[in-house]
Amino acid sequence: MQIKKLTEQLSVSPQIALDDIAALKEAGFRSIIVNRPDGEGVDQPTFPEVEAAARKEGLEAVYIPVDSGKVSDESAAAFGAAMAALPKPVLGYCRSGTRTATLWALSEAGARPLPEILERARQAGYDLSGAVKRIANGGRVPVEGDAPYHDIVIVGGGAGGISAAASLLARQSDLDIAIIEPADIHYYQPGWTLVGGGVFDPTYTRRDFATLLPDGVKWIKAAVAAFEPEEHAVILEGCRVVRYGKLIVAPGLKLDWAGIEGLEETIGRNGVTSNYRYDLAPYTWELVHSFRGGKALFTQPPMPIKCAGAPQKAMYLSCDEWRRNGVLENTEVEFLNAGPSLFGVADYVPSLMEYVKAYGIDLSFGHKLVRIDGPAKKAWFETTDAEGNTKIVERDFDMIHVVPPQTAPDFVRVSPLANEAGWLDVDPATLRHAKYPDIYGLGDVAGTSNAKTAAAARKQAPVVAANVLRDMGYGRQTADAIYDGYGSCPLTVERGKVILAEFAYGGRRVPSFPKWFIDDLKPSHMAWLLKERVLPSIYWKAMLKGREPMAKPSFKQPENEAA
């Protein structure tokens, strides 16, 4: 038997034999649901035979036959009713298990998020992408109607989505574009480091989304449930369908707060904070400003994450505040990084290490936060040695700045658009999807090796815009626009000084300014002014408006294109 678990209560398998029922009893199963009609194949016992064998072993059996390819709403409802009534755990089977998995998915529609249903089925080996509309429609066959169509549909109204729309319109003003975005508020997330450092007021980093929507772009205020790329369709929650000529996917990424045991219960109190959330960054500053000594921990999860320098930016600004207030000498600071190094681009590490030494920071690499107890002021980390052996180590803290693990949004991760790691599968240079040529992607969701920063999205948006318009037959462009992997991380090493790290694919340094103005390898007050005063204005007034200073796309293949 090939038994595959969908939930703690239900497992699925292909056709079983009568001799298997005793083994099912031994494995702990208490009920069987048969979804294969009698007489479908010569390899199957009849349901009366299964029922008699099950009764002999003390198991219950239910017969809900479904012809292949004909899963009805009524049979899905019957399956759900059987699951509610039968002793658990239950084994369901048909010829291959697909019909049973489909019945379960439809019966769970509305009770579980669509991405979770698809993911559980996928892990069990069942592709239910053909049933997404029904699952999104509460498990019922949807009534097909005329779905709205747009020449270009953009998923996500963050930095990447708005910038792509604005960049498209700057090149061709009469385009039919729609942005799918459920949120009313748009955030300038790079500013949250400075909120946590007591420099920015949090309201400085937020705007109403409606005020940022480019003129002429339609706003579809809804959440995406799934993609049907073969049908050129996006499925929204509630089973609404939007069709497209070209699709741009830019929904950002998912902060997995639940990925650390105990974090959701304590975040925002008990000395546990994070600059990765708008409402928590002010609490970071509250903790730092009132801190009078003790143990301060700063964590970084496994890559990839958005703004890989942000975890240590929070640490450096905190240490600088404590040094100014005479608190640092009474403080033990530790940076617990799941990765193997301080920063991914080695050229910048020596300058950062000078601050690590000056602040007296202990560095602990290969330490992944897995559990936290806020009231007890304890945190547990999984460590891995050179041989791959793991163990759990405990740390006490008085304050801890936590960065959660991060993944692609669930509706992308379980979709046909994802690569093996769950990120959007796009070409690293053209940002065109690897399988579907009418789909592009940019921003944090992209499965490319560049740093996930707003600076990367600023460079990616014109590339996507130019290539989409070329594909649509606008203009005279014939060559692909190329993204070189540019990203930037203004590392705030103290209040008033920043190391302006700029790099491209392969870890190449690509400084934008001459060394006499800003030396990217050294802390600079000029770079601080760029971070504090210039970059926010560039974001609001240029990047989101389709103006592209220092961001024009290249049409020449870079020498060090990512593999």
Written description of the protein model:
The protein has 563 residues and is α/β, with parallel strands linked by helices. It folds into three domains: 4-136, Protein-Tyrosine Phosphatase, Chain A, CATH 3.90.190; 150-253 and 408-479, FAD/NAD(P)-binding domain; 257-405, 3-Layer(bba) Sandwich (FAD/NAD(P)-binding domain). Helix content is 28%, strand content 22%. The strands form seven sheets. Strands 6, 7, 10, 11, 12, 13 and 24 form a seven-stranded mixed sheet that branches. Strands 1-2-5-3-4 form a five-stranded mixed sheet, with helices on both faces. Strands 15-22-16-17-18 form a five-stranded parallel sheet. A hairpin with a 4-residue loop joins β1 (4-5) and β2 (10-13). α3 (73-85) crosses α4 and α7 packs across α15 (454-471). The two termini are 41 Å apart. Pfam families: BLH_phosphatase (PF04273), Pyr_redox_2 (PF07992). Residues 3-111 form the Beta-lactamase hydrolase-like protein phosphatase-like domain. Residues 150-270 form the FAD/NAD(P)-binding domain. GO terms for molecular function: transferase activity.
